[in-house]
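Exercise 7.
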Amino acid sequence: MRDLIGEIGTKLHARLPPTIKICYYRTPDGIYDTLVLIRPYEVERSALSASNKSLQTAVTFQIDVQSTNRMVCRETQATVEETLKELGYYRLNGQELDDYLDNKHYVLAYRYKMKTKLYEVI
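Solution. The predicted structure, written as C-alpha cells, is:
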C-alpha cells in the first residue's frame, strides 16, 4: 500500500526551502510566513475495474500555498506544480482559488489528480 500524501510531502521537503512549513490535512495553529497544506480532496476510488476487481485507482489532492509575500506564493506554487507533474499528477481545470485572506496571507489552492498505472491498486 502506497502512502501518496507522504510521497508528495517527501518530494516537496526535498525541493522547497526549509523555511516553508509543509502541513497535512489541516492548517496548523499559529501563523507562518509561508506554508503548503496538502489534503485529500476525494476518497481514493477505482478508476477502472473488470470482473468486479479494481485495476486502477484515482486519487485527488488539494494543495494550498499560503504566504505573506505574493511572489513567494507564486514561486512556491510553481515548484509544487513541477513536483506533482514529476509524480504523475495533473491539475484539474476550473478548480483553483487565488485569494487574499483576512490573516494577510495570499492563497493559491489547486487540485491535482492522478491515476495509478494499470494493475497498480492502492
